UniProtKB/TrEMBL annotation:
Any one biological process term the GO annotation gives: regulation of DNA-templated transcription
NCBIfam families listed in its UniProt record: sensory_box (TIGR00229)
Segments passing through the bilayer: 12-31, 43-60, 67-87, 93-117, 129-150, 156-177, 202-222, 242-259, 266-285, 291-311, 323-348, 354-377
GO cellular component: plasma membrane
Sequence similarity: Belongs to the major facilitator superfamily. Nitrate/nitrite porter (TC 2.A.1.8) family.
Protein name: Nitrate/nitrite transporter
Domain (Major facilitator superfamily (MFS) profile) ranges: 6-380
Keywords linked to the UniProt accession: Membrane, Nitrate assimilation, Transmembrane, Transmembrane helix, Transport
Membrane topology field: Multi-pass membrane protein
SMART domains: PAS
Domain PAS, chain residue ranges per copy: 380-426
GO MF term (any one): nitrate transmembrane transporter activity
Ribonucleoprotein among keywords: no
Length: 523
């Protein structure tokens, strides 16, 4: 029973954590009426919570593996009481900066669920589960839409104080309903880091999440103030529109996880980054309300699906180092939301336009699309290589000219030739001289006509020993119309049930000797 409620409990906890994380950006229009802020200070006030919310995700993932989600969530909610109350008493920009920095703890708790929940489910469901957990992003929409309503009624300071009740409630819920027996991983974080930091896929996933989650966070914290200052919307209207953006991205996150469970997540990311590239271009053309709305909706759709797809990949490739890998990738996503608001404000101050900033989103997304394509096709090659390495029979792959490109360990075991001795040479290195030209002519005629050949053949090992093998050769053409030949063979000399163990070798040797004698005699 306790295990069954972890998904809803941790998802709701993430909702509340994210509500706390974006409190300043949700109320910045009200706060700036009482605390004079420049445009730059407004941007920093909304961006600063992202710093700690990003950096703490790495230790949060590691600590969740060691102590469990119950303790991590409980402690986090109690700690958040301090910065929320401090912000309610803020009088200067410095107060907002200090309180906002520690408010970032709310964003760091994302690593808790993505580290903990995969322990309860098989791999084929982890994309869906992480997608459902990601619905916790909805907390940003609730704050963005709800906080202005409450502030209108009782003021922004009391609205923050009212939120303290919710924090205490969820601290107690996690304390009493959290799983006390969650599986612990007590391996050294240094050992885990050594195992993952050299894996290039970790850094590729970090880049992908930097763009997808970063764009989600950036639009979430920047839209309320931007809609009020640029389009002169009311605070409540701006909050409602931002909440719609957040809700759409959030509810599509499970869709990204489900699609990635049912298909290749890299293919899903191809569509995601194609869409983000197009939306960035659209936003750059002109900030009219219809175009801006369409561009934002496209960002919401692509970011939501992309977030779910990336966190299908992380536990898939790093199941044994889930805590630190999830922490690094999610930290990259948080940092992706930190820079864009500052960049947009800076560029607007320099040029009076936002086009360059939005075009940067397009260019970064296009670069990510190229990386996804590269990783996708690299994975296919790695997969094929893994199959060759794990095959029990000997495998030899040549190009269309018959030059050997690769062999597996079984090839060396059967023939005695190490990989380095045959790469770049032709299969003639194995020739025993037993077969005449007509045999090889028939072999190539069949292979070129049908694309495959099977049969028995006599070859020679590195030590000079002649052996019989069952050989299967298949022609394979790739996407670039390049042909390769894959030869798979096994030593029949050790498994002939008719003539007895070892007789196959002696028979081949005798036949070869007789053939050689006839040649010398001029027959």
């Amino acid at each position: 029973m306790v295990k069954k409620i972890q998904l809803p409990l941790q998802t709701l906890s993430l909702v509340v954590s994210f509500m706390a994380w974006v409190l300043i950006s949700s109320l910045i229009s009200y706060i700036s009426q009482d605390i004079p802020l420049t445009a730059g200070q407004r941007a920093w006030s909304t961006a600063i919570p992202v710093i700690l919310g990003s950096l703490l995700r790495i230790p949060a993932g590691i600590l969740t593996n060691r102590f469990g989600a119950r303790l991590m969530n409980t402690v986090s909610f109690f700690i958040l009481l301090a910065p929320v109350y401090y912000l309610s008493q803020a009088n200067t920009f410095l107060d907002l900066a200090v309180g906002g920095f520690f408010l970032g703890i709310g964003g760091a708790t994302f690593s808790v669920g993505v580290t903990s929940l995969p322990k309860y489910y098989p791999k084929e469901k982890q994309g869906t589960i992480n997608g459902i957990y990601g619905i916790g992003n909805l907390g940003t929409a609730i704050s963005t839409f709800g906080a202005p309503w409450v502030a209108d009624a009782i003021g922004w300071s009391r609205a923050l104080q009212l939120f303290l009740i919710l924090l205490v409630l969820f601290a107690l819920l996690n304390l009493f309903l959290g799983d006390k027996r969650e599986e612990r991983v007590r391996r050294s974080w240094k050992d885990q880091l050594k195992q993952v930091y050299r894996n290039e896929k970790l850094w590729f996933f970090s880049i992908f999440y930097f763009i997808t989650f970063g764009s989600f966070v950036a639009f979430t914290i920047y839209l309320p103030g931007f809609l009020v200052s640029y389009f002169e919307l009311s605070k409540v209207d701006a909050g409602l529109r931002t909440a719609g953006f957040i809700a759409l991205a959030t509810f599509l996150r499970p869709v990204g996880g489900i699609l990635s469970d049912k298909s290749n997540p890299f293919v899903v990311l191809m569509f995601v980054f194609s869409g983000l590239t197009l939306s960035g271009v659209l936003l750059s053309f002109g900030l009219t309300m219809p175009l801006f709305t369409l561009g934002c909706l496209m960002v919401a759709v692509c970011a939501g699906i992309g977030n779910g797809a990336v966190f299908k990949l992380v536990p898939l490739y790093f199941s044994k180092q889930g805590g630190i890998a999830s922490g690094i990738v999610s930290a990259a996503g948080g940092l992706g939301g930190f820079f864009p608001p500052l960049l947009l404000t800076l560029l607007f101050g320099w040029t009076g336009h936002y086009a360059i900033g939005f075009m940067a989103l397009s260019e970064a997304s296009l670069a990510s699309l190229i990386l996804v394509l590269w990783v996708f096709f690299s994975n296919k090659l790695e997969f094929a290589s893994d199959i060759i390495k794990s095959t029990a029979d000997a495998v030899m792959v040549t190009d269309a000219e018959g030059v050997i490109h690769t062999v597996n360990a079984a090839f060396t075991e059967v023939t005695g030739y190490p990989k380095e001795a045959v790469i770049g040479k032709t299969p003639n290195i194995l020739s025993s001289g037993f077969h005449d030209r007509s045999f090889y002519n028939a072999f190539w005629d069949t292979l070129l006509t049908t694309g495959k050949w099977q049969g028995k053949i006599v070859n020679r090992k590195a030590n000079g020993e002649v052996f019989r093998e069952w050989l299967s050769v298949t022609a394979i053409t790739n996407e670039q119309n390049a042909t390769h030949y894959v030869a798979i063979f096994s030593d029949l000399s050790q498994a002939d049930s008719v003539i007895g163990e070892g007789e196959g070798d002696r028979l081949a040797e005798n036949q070869f000797s007789k053939k050689a004698t006839r040649k010398e005699a001029g027959e």
